[in-house]
Amino acid sequence: MAETKKIRIQYFRSAIATPVKHKLVVKGLGFTRLNQIVERVDTPSIRGMVKTIPHLVRIIEN
Q1: How far are the Cα atoms of 3, 25, 35, 55 from residue 32, in angstroms, in the given order?
Q2: Structure confidence at residue 61 (pLDDT)
Q3: Within a domain: 44
Q4: What's 16's domain CATH number?
Q5: 25 in Cβ contact with 45 (< 8 Å)
Q6: Where are the beta strands (DSSP E) in the chain?
Q7: Element spanning 22, H or E
Q8: Beta bridge partners of 10
Q9: What string of pLDDT tens digits covers the 62 residues of the chain?
Q10: What's the domain count of the chain?
Q11: What integer pLDDT is reported at residue 3 of this predicted model?
Q12: Structural domain harbouring 35
């Protein structure tokens, strides 16, 4: 079975004063608290979500 590529994302800035759509994207990525790092499968949909909120998350290089 082929190994799926992963992407590590860190939630580093609060979404308190952001539009509701941005808050929903943060929740959709699976973040529950600030400075949390999650690992997701590197798909175009996940990349698109990260591209929507680049001011709130950062990609962690392995």
Answers
A1: 27, 12, 10, 17
A2: 84
A3: yes
A4: 3.30.1390.20
A5: no
A6: 6-11, 36-41, 57-60
A7: helix 20-28
A8: 37, 58
A9: 668 899 999 999 999 999 999 999 999 999 999 999 999 999 999 999 999 999 999 999 87
A10: 1
A11: 81
A12: 6-60
